[in-house]
């Protein structure tokens, strides 16, 4: 498996959008909106590829100095629970550390909280609803 940074508006970015839609939005009867995609040109996009096929993707949105938000992590359904998501997230954390980020946070769907806890993320605050699902803010030091 190869993990790379994906260039915005590249063919790989289009594949990542399709994967995000298929895994995260379509099951809820939703589509990625222009509002949700606004500003993605200034965000970091990563993908895990197996034999040149995208199997997982994640977006990193820089916040204030040293803080980054992970969002829209999607792993192809036939590759879930195989370590692909963990490997992708760890690789992204390493890259973001190299870029000077010291803390990462994300909004985990309730069902995914145990996955992120295994990777060192800690719950912050109370659960909240987002796109009709319960979510938990989670944070991790990258230092």
From TrEMBL:
<keyword id="KW-0012">Acyltransferase</keyword>
<dbReference type="Pfam" id="PF13673">
    <property type="entry name" value="Acetyltransf_10"/>
</dbReference>
<protein>
    <submittedName>
        <fullName>GNAT family N-acetyltransferase</fullName>
    </submittedName>
</protein>
<dbReference type="InterPro" id="IPR016181">
    <property type="entry name" value="Acyl_CoA_acyltransferase"/>
</dbReference>
<feature type="domain" description="N-acetyltransferase">
    <location>
        <begin position="1"/>
        <end position="143"/>
    </location>
</feature>
<dbReference type="InterPro" id="IPR050832">
    <property type="entry name" value="Bact_Acetyltransf"/>
</dbReference>
<keyword id="KW-0808">Transferase</keyword>
<dbReference type="InterPro" id="IPR000182">
    <property type="entry name" value="GNAT_dom"/>
</dbReference>
């Amino acid at each position: 498996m190869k993990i790379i940074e994906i260039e915005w508006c590249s063919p790989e970015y289009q594949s990542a959008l399709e994967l995000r839609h298929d895994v995260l939005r379509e099951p809820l009867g939703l589509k990625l909106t222009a509002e949700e995609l606004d500003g993605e040109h200034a965000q970091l996009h990563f993908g895990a590829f197996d034999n040149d096929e995208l199997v997982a993707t994640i977006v990193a949105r820089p916040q204030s100095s040293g803080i980054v938000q992970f969002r829209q992590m999607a792993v192809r359904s036939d590759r879930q629970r195989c370590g692909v998501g963990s490997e992708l997230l760890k690789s992204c954390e390493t890259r973001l550390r190299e870029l000077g980020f010291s803390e990462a946070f994300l909004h985990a769907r309730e069902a995914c909280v145990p996955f992120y806890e295994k990777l060192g993320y800690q719950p912050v605050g109370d659960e909240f609803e987002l796109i009709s699902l319960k979510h938990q803010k989670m944070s991790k030091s990258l230092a």
